[in-house]
Amino acid sequence: MSIKIGIFGYGNLGRGVESAIAQNDDMELVAVFTRRPPESLKLRTPGVPVMSVNSVAEMKDKIDVMIICGGSATDLPVQTPAIASMFNCIDSFDTHARIPEHFARVDSAAKEGNKVALISCGWDPGMFSVMRLYSEAILPEGSTYTFWGKGVSQGHSDAIRRIDGVLDAKQYTIPVESALDAVRSGAAPELTTRQKHLRECFVVAADGADRARIENEIKTMPNYFADYDTTVHFISAEELLRDHSGIPHGGFVIRSGKSGFERENTHVMEFSLKLDSNPEYTSSVIVASARAVARLSADGACGAKSILDIPPSYLSPKSPAELRKELL
Amino acid sequence: MSIKIGIFGYGNLGRGVESAIAQNDDMELVAVFTRRPPESLKLRTPGVPVMSVNSVAEMKDKIDVMIICGGSATDLPVQTPAIASMFNCIDSFDTHARIPEHFARVDSAAKEGNKVALISCGWDPGMFSVMRLYSEAILPEGSTYTFWGKGVSQGHSDAIRRIDGVLDAKQYTIPVESALDAVRSGAAPELTTRQKHLRECFVVAADGADRARIENEIKTMPNYFADYDTTVHFISAEELLRDHSGIPHGGFVIRSGKSGFERENTHVMEFSLKLDSNPEYTSSVIVASARAVARLSADGACGAKSILDIPPSYLSPKSPAELRKELL
């Protein structure tokens, strides 16, 4: 019997979830919910109804796991608790500093509804968190480093677009190769913000705009760019479309630690991702995790969870015996 | 209250476990069991008794988790079921093809004793298995590659030592850099045994031994070397001791997979280890996992488990709330 999935919100992430479901034989997309007029959406999967978010309660008994595809800033803090009281669900809440309060709110809603709600699923938070946990638990005396990129930062691209005279922009976060090498050597260096990442910006300026001022405003922008070595390239709208339409991302979690009675041996654990499409990979993690949510619920669990709480085997369609034979 | 650990067998792995316990404040080494005369062993940890393996039953109520440090060929198939009937325990059984039968035997013994027994813990099987599982579950359409090295293979070194005229030898397994690059590109190449790994051998020959014959016997040895590009270096006993005394190892698990409605996007997940000491890193994984075994037992679980069945959070001394705040 297949796992019945609902998608709540149909942007980049929702479309990624739809395509990932099509790669998993044990899953079935049952409905997509939207705030837009349902008839304005065209799905890729034949025969799946598009419904208004207002009629979600009607589907309470027809969906095993709801995948909530809203944004972390304003959507998920409201949507996830509301959905968790009615459905097993997953979100990708990624405002790291606010995870504890989000968890608490979702946990109480999910417990009220006797549902399982997996929050902050994806790659960071998500798979990177898993790797930080394993590597710290295995090598308790050591240092963990997370690097992001090369990839597009939506927030930084938006910040550039708000500058007067900028028509469009794309910003790449790039890890500094020499910093990666220093970390991989096991030397456990102390690294400043500037030493870890570069920022590269591709900007379409309005005709006659003062490019020197725009470049200066970008490079001195507090929080976003001032603490980084930033390069700015002015290009045409055509070039932006042609060369920078993708949403690649990735990154590295590296831990070096010591073992031995005299701490004489060094070990380096590294996990990296190189992603053509950030939203599609995030969706792929979420869809595998939907399987785990369905199983946890079948086990009788309820409340909020994170991927740190879930046995790896729960993400796979294979049985424990198959996993031991093929992958252990 | 600390977790009380016993070590069953005191070779390289047992010593590694002893040093790893000293890095974990919530653990305490309670006793070491040996087949040798107990008075012949000198531990590094003060005040810990060395006992005969024959008196292990006496400690039944004084040890929370027994870490079994025997070899996979003949020790563990006998030791782990025997210990699992009396103690929560962990082994590092690494004969991949025989894992299902080992699991079945340990499972029935552990269930009889109402104990938890974690088998095949370490890095491969172990952390590499976890990564193979996660990456296959997340990217169901793709290819997984495991590379080992650069590192010392004990089995291959032993095979060389059995050749007539060889006094001592050390063999390194080395992943082929161009194969790693091809896999990382996302091209999903088909690779033969020869294309994936090189074998490099450092051999101390007896005075007057026929080096050409020794080199030929190594390079044509079925299973061990015949399918690989192998290089042989003859060196002195002093050089072997000076340059090749370590037990480094490591390796790579890489999966590339596709996403998108047209499978138009490629993603590469890579996990790698670079280890100064193979037994000490293996021990570090085992000791973190001992914490998980103690928790599973406290939860009321029993029977055989693998690391694939264990929530990552169970390996950490931190609480779920701390983990969410600091690592998620």
Rounded Rg of chain A: 22 Å
Number of helices of chain A: 11
Structural class of chain A: alpha/beta
Shape label of chain A = globular
User: Which blocks of ≥5 consecutive residues of chain A have pLDDT under 50?
Assistant: none
Strand content of chain A: 25-35%
Which pair of protein chains has the largest interface, and what are the residue counts? A-B, 71 and 70 residues
Number of strands of chain A: 14
The H-and-E topology of chain A, N to C, reads as: EHEEEHEHEHEEHEHHEHEHEEHEH
Biggest β-sheet of chain A, characterized? 7 strands, parallel
pLDDT averaged residue by residue of chain A: 97
Helix content of chain A: 25-40%
Strands of the biggest beta sheet of chain A: in what spatial order? Answer: 3-2-1-4-5-6-14
- The separation of the N and C termini of chain A measures 27 Å
Q: State the oligomer.
A: homodimer
Topology, pairings included?
Two copies of one chain form a homodimer.
Chain A: E1 3-8, H1 12-21, E2 27-34, E3 50-52, E4 65-68, H2 76-84, E5 88-90, H3 99-113, E6 116-118, H4 127-138, E7 142-148, E8 151-152, H5 154-161, E9 166-175, H6 177-184, H7 193-196, E10 197-205, H8 211-219, E11 229-234, H9 237-243, E12 249-259, E13 265-275, H10 278-298, E14 303-305, H11 320-326
